[in-house]
Write a structure and sequence with these properties.
By secondary structure, the protein is α+β, with helices and mostly antiparallel strands. The protein contains eight helices and 13 strands. Bound molecules: adenosine-5'-diphosphate.
Length: 449
């Protein structure tokens, strides 16, 4: 409605400007034609004039019929009218002509408007008088008035047609939007799997429907992810809570010795620690997912960071009778990031390597520059990841069958991946066989795009 209003308003203004220009040009052209005709008539009369004894002898010129509304007047050198028919005339034009200048003028007489052209008549020595050719402008005025009336009368009609057409067009163009609104309203959290139907063949509308459907898909995925996460968390918390509940109930059933109470409390403490660790990991993950923390990123020297993490885990590796080697490049690999998150990423990869490698094995960390990226490999000679687990190992709470007894939550790799992603990098399993696995991390280097 508003759109149509503006459309009609703008059209109205354009139309009025158009009418003004049309009217003014028509007027200017008509005047030019009239002036040309008057000049031609005056000149042809002057040609035929002859002088006998210093007096003008009017030629036998063809007097234009009064029907044409053209009149010719002759004046003597004193400016007196020579023609018998009394007619109004432009006195100023006559004065100017007697001074040797031709001129055009408009004047009014008895409610009628005239256009006059006055031309001096002279031979080599003498000024002989003047010719004035007149025409009434009534016909032109009438034509102009009719034209204006016609144009102005047509304008509202034209605008009305434009408004109806515009309204129809707008309604037809916006109809699919209404349909989309209706369809979107029907989508609730319980029916996030619904998609918008293809409503129109218009490219823009189709694009809109496709974009909205893409958005719905993302929302649905996020929603399902969150739902599953909640289920997973509840599930993970239920086991330690059930153990705590069981131990406490058992302890309370009858009076126990202090040693028994201590054992129960130790059991409870173990389970609570387990829960605290899990909650901390989840909180860490939530923080990594929040990309606004990128604002606080600082340059981090990867060489030093990798060395530090390996040093930290060396005792654990030694304890498991594993060889831990680090191969770092000569040049400095600097990335923009959060050093404690990046430490966590490599800590988790190395901890897994240690966890899933039988004693006597070897774990190797290498880093190198590859174009604009730092490439870090964590290679172990461990048990490998079964092919069917590979697509899932980065999912939250996923644990391979063989690792259940090793005490992880299944969050280590999701945390590592979240850190890599928040730093603009990635992690993938480059290779995994029953003889060992290689995890490959890529991170964009600072200042290189
Ligand atoms: P977890 O806490 O169970 O280690 P992660 O998210 O770190 O959880 O790892 C997910 C799963 O991926 C593990 O349960 C394990 O099956 C597999 N995995 C990860 N790293 C290795 C590795 N280096 N060698 C073999 N399997 C691994």
């Amino acid at each position: 409605m508003k759109l149509t209003f503006w459309y009609v308003l703008i059209l109205g203004v354009i139309l009025l400007v158009f009418i003004f220009i049309l009217y003014e040009s028509f007027k200017a052209f008509s005047y030019r034609d009239i002036d040309q005709a008057l000049r031609t008539i005056a000149s042809s009369i002057r040609e035929g004039i002859s002088v006998v004894d210093e007096r003008i002898v009017t030629p036998e010129f063809e007097r234009p019929s009064p029907l044409n509304d053209v009149f010719v007047l002759l004046f003597n050198p004193r400016g007196e009218l020579l023609t018998e028919t009394p007619l109004p005339y432009d006195a100023r034009g006559v004065t100017l002509a007697l001074r040797g200048k031709d001129s055009y003028a408009n004047f009014e007489n008895g409610g009628r408007e005239f256009r006059a052209y006055t031309l001096p008549v002279h031979d080599e020595e003498h000024r002989l008088g003047a010719i004035q050719v007149l025409t009434t402008l009534s016909a032109l005025r009438k034509a102009l008035a009719n034209l204006l009336f016609l144009l102005l009368a047509l304008t509202p009609m034209f605008l009305a047609v434009a408004a109806i057409g515009g309204l129809n067009l707008a309604r037809r163009a916006l109809a699919p939007i209404g349909e989309i609104v209706k369809a979107v309203r029907l989508i609730k959290t319980e029916s996030l799997d619904r998609r918008l139907p293809s409503i129109s063949t218009d490219a823009e509308i189709e694009d809109l429907v496709r974009t909205l459907n893409g958005m719905l898909e993302e929302i649905e995925k996020g929603f399902l992810r969150e739902k599953r996460l909640t289920q997973d968390i509840s599930h993970e918390l239920r086991t330690p809570l059930t153990i705590i509940k069981g131990s406490v109930s058992l302890a309370l059933r009858k009076s126990r010795s202090p040693e028994e109470y201590v054992a129960t409390l130790q059991e409870v403490e173990r389970e609570v620690d387990h829960m605290i660790r899990m909650v901390n990991e989840l909180l860490f993950l939530a923080r990594e997912d929040d990309l606004t923390q990128q604002k606080h990123f600082k340059p981090v020297l990867l060489n030093a960071l990798l060395e530090e993490v390996c040093l930290e885990l060396l005792p654990l590796a030694t304890q498991h009778h594993l060889l831990l080697c680090v191969n770092l490049p000569e040049d400095r690999l600097v990335v923009l990031g959060n050093s404690s998150s990046l430490e966590r990423l490599f800590y988790n990869l190395l901890e897994n390597a240690i966890k899933y490698t039988p004693s006597g094995g070897k774990i190797e960390v290498t880093a190198e520059r590859n174009g604009h990226q730092a490439v870090i490999r964590v290679k172990d000679t461990g048990i490998g990841i079964p092919r069917e687990d590979l697509p899932h190992i980065f999912e939250r709470f996923f644990r391979g069958d063989r690792s259940r007894q090793r005490g992880g939550f299944g969050l280590g790799l999701s945390i590592a991946l979240a850190v890599a992603k928040s730093h603009g990098g990635d992690i993938r399993v480059e290779d995994s066989t029953p003889q060992g696995s290689t995890f490959l991390v890529t991170l964009p280097l600072l200042g290189e795009k």
